[in-house]
Amino acid sequence: MKSTELEFILFDLDNTLYPRTSGLFDHIDRLINRYLEKVIKIPAKEVDRLRRAYLAAHGTTLNGLIAHHAVDPYHYLDFVHDVPLADYLVPDAELAQLIARLPGKKYIFSNASSSHCQRVLDYLGLSNLFSAVYDINYFNFRPKPDLAIYRELLDDIGGDPAKGIMIDDLIVNLEPAASLGMTTVFYDPALKNPPLLPPQGRSLNCLHRLPQLVTELRLRAPN
Ligand SMILES: [Mg+2]
Question: How many of the other CB atoms lie within 10 Å of CB of 8?
Fold first, then answer.
């Protein structure tokens, strides 16, 4: 990336714009288990194994449920995202200012539903900062890390991957972005040892240090 050429930043939403330690995603995780048990009628002791199998074979639990149980994705997404946000999240005015000041256009790139993304952004006070939200509905329920949706997103924003940054709390989601030439930032507040990152990848353990990292990336780049 040339120092003058940062054009866009893709932000993951869950466990990135709010910390994993908030417990919000654990609540969603419990609702996914409940959906399998109560709605699909999977025996409780089978739920974990089945979720792991669907994740490995289909990318998400949802895609496994669509393939094997003809689940209505809208019903599933409404069920698993029915979370009392106020129990877990705290609006973060400092984060809002920080994101607003970052260079380039900002987008959300999330495996969650449109309504969940909007509710979380509204609650955190971040709704006005993003040019668009690319969620699981937009991609017809195909999730990250499916390379095809990264290409579709870049096409839609007219983005040159060499001029973009992607930040996510899952390395597996960053790998396709790196393979297309984006600079990737792995976010983990509990980061201790350097993880195995994609080529040219960086890591971050505090979101409030993102402006500093972005500045470093731009300064380091050849003009
Ligand atoms: Mg995430």
Answer: 22
Residue 99 alpha carbon to ligand 1 centre in Å: 17
86 found inside a domain = no
In which domain, by residue range, is 70 found?
24-80
pLDDT of residue 70: 96
pTM of the model: 0.93
CA distance 61 to 122: 26
Tokens of residue 127, six digits: 């709704």
* 73 within domain boundaries: yes
Distance from Cα 59 to the centre of ligand 1, integer Å = 14
Three-class DSSP category at 204: strand
Q: How far is the CA of 223 from the centre of ligand 1 (A)?
A: 33
Distance 222 CA to ligand 1 centre (A): 31
pLDDT tens-digit profile of 5-57? 799 999 999 999 999 999 999 999 999 999 999 999 999 999 999 999 999 89
